[in-house]
Queue: 3 jobs
Job 1
Amino acid sequence: MDERSSTTPAAVGTDLPTPPGSVRETFQRTWLLEVPRTGVWDWLCDPGTFTDTQVPPWRVEFLDPATGGPAGFSAGVLTTHHGPLLHLPGVLGEQRDGAYRDLAYIYGAYVGSLRLARPLRLQFFLADVADGGTSLRLQVDADVRGWFAPAWRLGNRVFWGRFGAWAARGAAGRG
């Protein structure tokens, strides 16, 4: 997905230039889930999936820019995931019902520190598989200091490692 939704500002996500001394990293992971795609999509688009499971002091918030109040998942909604060593402000971009969701991070997003890792974009791709289940693919793009890239890759493998099991458990009985 390289196209940008008209609701996503151009100065966010992968449109940002890579800082000197950093490399562009793309992490991808695919899970085959034994639950229907509609259930997985419903789980991914439920703000509670991300807000209700946070361990303090980390937190996830979704804000409707028109009202200033809480929001769900729709293009243009502002979001932030924050806590110690983590600041991930972003804007929800394109969504294709049941198939694709895009989150572009805003300049200033970081993991560890602004000089270590700058996440740019988080995408989810869903597709039906032959047995009635779902293929769920995640892609995270980030600019990472060259020397920190191996740790970034390992951290993503660990952090996202159980996401497929959480998705299958959370999506069961939905949709």
Note: Helices lie at 37-44, 47-51, 149-160, 163-171.
Job 2
Amino acid sequence: MIDGKLQPVGVERKSGIVELRKNFSKADYSRFLRALKRLAKSYKHPILALEGTPSSLLRPTKDIPDPAAVVQHILWECRRLCIEVVLIGECHLPATRRNAGTFLLFFMLSCLDKPLAGSVE
């Protein structure tokens, strides 16, 4: 928010299920929820970009035996706060990070009130 005005688009990125699980721990949950509320309050189009695929986000591990519960909770919180969730795939290599960034840029531009010049009719 600048001078009391909502900015058009804001993005928070999470690097996958391990980071999400950490954010839902007792020690970090209140801070994470405050950050989500701040994102929702500060931007006309708040976006949570999740790095991963549905398969990688829902794959149980030794430390996260029920990742579905974590994913369901984050989606519930985002829906409640009117935050759009976008999966941007695995971003381990520079090329995939660039592609994810380009995709997010296009997604952010789609949130603007007017279509871009030269857009498809």
Note: The two ends are 33 Å apart (CA to CA).
Job 3
Amino acid sequence: MSEQEESHRGGKDRRLLLGVGAAVLAAGLFAVGLAVGRYHQPEVRNEAETMPQADAGGAAPQVASLSDLLPGLEAKVVANPNDVDQRLLLAQTYNELGQRDKAIHELRIVHRAQPKNTEVTILLGTALMEGDSRRDLNESFALLQDAVRLNPAVSPMARLYQGDIRAKLGDTRGAIRIWQDYLNHMSAGDQRRSMFEEKIAAATGH
């Protein structure tokens, strides 16, 4: 499988996992990615409500870009440093603009303040796993382990990603062991089984 195809499949796997997690979130539990939607979407909508509408001639209004909104978000965080939602939105905006270090910095601030917040723990862990530094990857692995301890409902996502981390660290056997161990505990009808089976198949070449 080509690197491009593997990347596409990985993105598909994550989207499916997040969709399955919606039921968990509805039950009052945290799920990775959907948390991003919680703090991301309302803020963007509020900003959009202030944008000009099309004029009488039908000309389309100018839409503010993320980079245009960034100074305002930064100012809000400075004015209200304890506002978790604003700081998480700022972190997400930095990440989408390719400013990963700044995004991680903001997530670390929130995590230090709320170390038992499963949502924040997952967001910081998944942000760190996107890098190539062994230090970041090992920290990401530990954070995902913390997330499972705080909320076992996120175990499928955490184990899937922890396997990815072991693979990035060059420990293919360790990755397969994580995926296989969790797969062995999943019910036959669990639709997430396919994600673990595909990971194992790709790693083993079968």
Note: Confidence is low (pLDDT under 50) at residues 11-54.
